[in-house]
Amino acid sequence: MDGPVLVRRAAAAVLAAAICGWLSTFAPGAGRVELTAAHGRGDVHEAPKRPPAPPKPPPPDCARAKCVALTFDDGPSESTAELLDILAARKVRATFFLIGENVVKRPDLVRRERDAGHEIADHSYTHVDLGAASKKKALSELTRTQDAIRQASGYTPVLLRPPYGATSERLTELTRELGLAQVLWTVDPVDWEHRDTGYVERRVLKEVRPGDIVLMHDIHPTTVKAVPEIIDRLAGEGYAFVTVPELFGGRLTPGEEYDRRNSGEGQGLP
To answer: What GO MF annotations does this protein's record show (predicted)?
Structure first.
């Protein structure tokens, strides 16, 4: 019996020695793998921070620059997305006067307008004549639109464009109470009647002057297709494109009416 026992002990000793040899052979490599993995985890935590985005340049001084405010009524609509692409490609900000019913239908476009830096504003809930409406009716039209825009974008408008440009003493009093300035316009290509891209282009380019507010409608694809040429031509003439609040230096009084600002070379300023 001693013989088999000795053989088994000898075999066990040989096996133990072999295992130790293998471990000693692989241990350094395993250590290197572990260190490499740990080093890799450190790289993730120590990645350089992205530098902050540079601040946006301030808007031009429209008391001196050749400013123009492009405004679009009655949206958002199916063609609004194309217009937003056009404005983004040219780095132009505009002002959108929104119908409350359409805001409820397309809140994603309202958010996109706001996120892109455009001014969004009230144009009533159903495009009713606010100048002829009772105070109760006008109040409902305005507050429902304000609520819809706020729910869609988180922003509460400070501007109103009364449909048809129809205002009244009663509406002026109401907008003063609600903190809304009334914005009309200087240039109207009557694009709701003339569904002709070339006509809209020619009409705007012929009539626009420094300090003007241009009325257009993004619900009409023919108007949207006119916008690139209008922007490119006016930019070539030295115009700066601003939102309505920027046109007036951010100083608009609730209840008051605004249709243009005297500004730029047309007024003989440097």
So the answer is: hydrolase activity, acting on carbon-nitrogen (but not peptide) bonds; metal ion binding
List the catalytic residue out of 73, 74, 122, 212: 73
Residue 111 maps to a domain: yes
> Is position 217 annotated as part of the catalytic site?
yes
SS3 state at 9: helix
> Per-residue confidence of the chain (270 residues) as pLDDT tens digits?
455 444 455 445 544 444 444 444 444 444 443 433 334 444 444 545 656 656 677 889 999 999 999 999 999 999 999 999 999 999 999 999 999 999 999 999 999 999 999 999 999 999 999 999 999 999 999 999 999 999 999 999 999 999 999 999 999 999 999 999 999 999 999 999 999 999 999 999 999 999 999 999 999 999 999 999 999 999 999 999 999 999 999 989 999 999 999 866 444 344
Structurally, the chain folds into a number of domains equal to: 1
Q: What DSSP line would sit under 94-157, residue for residue?
A: -EEEE-HHHHHH-HHHHHHHHHTT-EEEE--SS---TTTS-HHHHHHHHHHHHHHHHHHHS---
Q: What is the pTM of this model?
A: 0.79
74 is known as an active-site residue: no
- Of 74, 118, 212, 217, which one is the catalytic site residue? 217
